[in-house]
């Protein structure tokens, strides 16, 4: 074998190993929502996935049910305070109607920075009537809302697990009102 053939073979093997490593690394980085999806989902997944109401830390009965337009229903399954000073609200968005529903753009709110990042629940707020304060959805350093993003439609009967993260009200505030554009308001209890 010549030295040139051996060098070409090594370069090819190194390039193949680097490409495989990059592919595995990219696959390992995907999947975690974290509110920063770079590729929005075209549609929500079917309810055949794990039932969010039975996940750890979530009760079987919803904390609140908010009625929306066109048969949309938002069931709040948990509102958990964490040690970092945040409240994460989890729920299930369901199309209770008989037809495909286009998710209203108003759910994203009206702030330019949030709207620029696509459909989301960025218009949600928590209202602490005791402390007379309103808490808006948090954003990451790139201005993306810390909520479920990238959904546009729900088929009849289809569900989508959703979350929203807010600054935590004072520790002695355990009840807040969740408001979301185009939906009725609902009072929820914060745990933790």
Automatic annotation (TrEMBL):
<feature type="region of interest" description="Disordered">
    <location>
        <begin position="33"/>
        <end position="60"/>
    </location>
</feature>
<keyword id="KW-0732">Signal</keyword>
<feature type="compositionally biased region" description="Polar residues">
    <location>
        <begin position="38"/>
        <end position="58"/>
    </location>
</feature>
<feature type="signal peptide">
    <location>
        <begin position="1"/>
        <end position="26"/>
    </location>
</feature>
<protein>
    <recommendedName>
        <fullName>Secreted protein</fullName>
    </recommendedName>
</protein>
């Amino acid at each position: 074998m010549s030295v040139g053939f051996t060098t070409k073979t090594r370069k090819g093997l190194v390039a193949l190993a680097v490409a495989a490593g990059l592919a595995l690394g990219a696959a390992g980085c995907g999947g975690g929502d974290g509110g920063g999806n770079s590729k929005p989902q075209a549609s929500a997944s079917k309810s055949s996935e794990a039932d969010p109401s039975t996940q750890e830390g979530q009760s079987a009965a919803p904390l609140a049910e908010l009625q929306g337009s066109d048969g949309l229903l938002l069931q709040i399954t948990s509102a958990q305070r964490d040690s970092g000073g945040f409240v994460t609200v989890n729920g299930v968005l369901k199309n209770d109607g008989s037809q495909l529903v286009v998710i209203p753009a108003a759910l994203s709110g009206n702030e330019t920075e949030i709207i620029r990042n696509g459909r989301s629940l960025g218009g949600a707020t928590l209202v602490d009537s005791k402390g007379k304060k309103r808490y808006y959805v948090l954003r990451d350093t790139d201005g993306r809302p810390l909520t479920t993003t990238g959904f546009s439609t729900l088929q009849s009967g289809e569900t989508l697990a959703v979350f929203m993260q807010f600054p935590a009200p004072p520790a002695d505030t355990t009840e807040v009102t969740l408001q979301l554009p185009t939906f009725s308001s609902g009072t929820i209890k914060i745990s933790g």
